[in-house]
Amino acid sequence: MSVLTPARTSGRTASAQENFSAWANRHRKWLFAAPAMIFVGVLIIFPLAWTLYLSLTDSQGSVRAASDFVGLENYLTVLTDTERFWPAVGRTLSFTFVALACEIILGMGIALLLWRPFRGEKWVRVAILLPLVATPVAVGMMWRLIFDPNIGFANQVLGLVGIPPQPWLSGQDSALPTTIFMDVWQWTPMVVLILLAGLTSLSDEPDEAARMDGASAVQRFFYVTLPLMMPTVIVAILLRGIDALKTFDILYATKGKGGGSFHEVETLNVYAYGLSFDYNQYGLSSAVLILFFMIIIGSMWLLTMRKKAVSK
Amino acid sequence: MTLLTEPQAPARRRPQVARRKKPLRSRAYKTFRVVALIAVVLFLIAPLFWMLLASFKTNVDIYDAGKSFLFTPTGENYANVLQRNNYFVFIFNSFWVAFVSTALSLVLGVPAAYAMSRFTMHRSALVVLMARVIPGVSLLVPWYYVFSNLKMVGGFEVLILSHMFVALPLIVYIMMSYFDSLPLELEESAQVDGLTPIGAFRRITLPLSVAGMATAGILSFIFSWNNFMFALVLSGSKTKTLPVAIFDFVSYASIDWGGLMAAATVVTIPIMIIALFTQKYIVSGMTAGATKG
Lengths: 312, 293
What we know:
The complex is a heterodimer. Chain A contains 14 helices and no strands. Chain A has helices at about 5-10, 15-25, 30-55, 75-80, 85-115, 120-135, 135-145, 155-160, 175-200, 205-210, 215-245, 250-255, 270-280, 280-310. In chain A, helix 9 (about 175-200) packs across helix 11 and helix 11 (about 215-245) packs antiparallel against helix 14 (about 280-310). The two termini of chain A are about 40 Å apart. Helices cover about 80% and strands about 0% of the residues of chain B. Chain B has helices spanning about 1-10, 15-55, 60, 75-85, 85-120, 120-135, 135-150, 155-180, 185-190, 195-210, 210-225, 230-235, 240-250, 255-275, 280-285. In chain B, about 45% of the residues are buried. The chains are: A mainly alpha, B mainly alpha. The interface between A and B is large, with 97 and 95 residues.
């Protein structure tokens, strides 16, 4: 303030620039935050409101075509649709749940392996980084070749062990588990990195104390390390879970429109995308999206509550 | 205390048998650890290696199980992909979109993250972070409508805007946790020395945040490079990015596996090279805010 007062009292002599600088400094909180917030706000709030509106209309064909207000009819159609919608909900949840469970368990195991320094650590870290940054669509194509029933490497390996070839992505029951496997391959590294950061920030003392008391390594992990790691584990679940619910790239890249000819891998995101851009059913797809959004927010809210409980 | 406890120490270590067993068990653990680590590395690297191998094979060799590892490498797939399919254009498009959207997001996001961190604007931060949660499809329909009315679909501007939507929340998220960890004292003493608050931000905080901005920038570049869904809807024939180009590769009748693998390699190699040189930053960005509790 002491810097500002002389500029103000000298009135006209103060240049416009100084006035502006004083004004900017006083309002820097909003000056700094506003551009980003307006950008995100305009690009979110407007489309979200629009989606909400579309979900109450029978808009289809072209977004520009006239549409009628139909109330909650779309929601009724969607919620009673046991052919596409509910199976898609089931697939979304089982994809997310199984992938997350595998990623957290494997991720914790790998993080524990990497916890203490060892020779060649650098190379293992590089190996962990590569799947993480690889383009998901390219990864999907890579797995398509590896899991190809006739020429794929996966069946060649199985053949060596004497297991008959599997249909993998082209099987009606095996497609979803195969895509879960791809997700686990690509994103376990991210869980490893997060959990490893958590492990490194732990103090050694509780672990040492338990060792002194004669606790075995397994006991020390379950009774000392794991409870201390719970907040980090929940962050990992939260960050990974949001993305897993919204998985699109590898599913669309490996199975194409509608999640395959029998909708084997059609999750909510793939279903909504298909309704919007492959079939132009905007009203219906908007209702699906609003429900999908509520599922995401709901599960995030549950996890945040859980995290607060654990941190206390 | 030390004098008192030391004579007692041997008494506490009485179970001698258990002690003798320990080296053996730890050697077993060491072996297990080495084997497990090798398995992990193989699991993560083998698929990528397979993709790389296939990209150097002719389609006849790809169909021949006997030539899994022993084959005469050919560069034909790459020549096809790069020349005939114009991948240089797509590489440039991907690079340009990722670069501009990252740069603009840094310009918007860094000051915003600073304000949100220093003035603890949690609710505002939540608005920006919401962008990470919303399913992209729910934004695409309205965007598509508006931008096609403005005749902007197929141009770089829309693509950059949509990618900023991915980059900005990421940058705000990473930079907020970075500014949170930066001590206030430096700025305060700079203000005592006569700098305005904005001056202190520009001359003190920003230079100290280069590492944080590098982290945020690299991650947002990678995410933009890898983004598929927005480009699938909003890009045109002239602005097609690499992920969309690969996706289009398979929509023809029969799959040219060699070419497809070469294309997949062309997309992933640049980003992997960047990742190798900036490993430290990527790790710190991926784990930002994870251990704060």
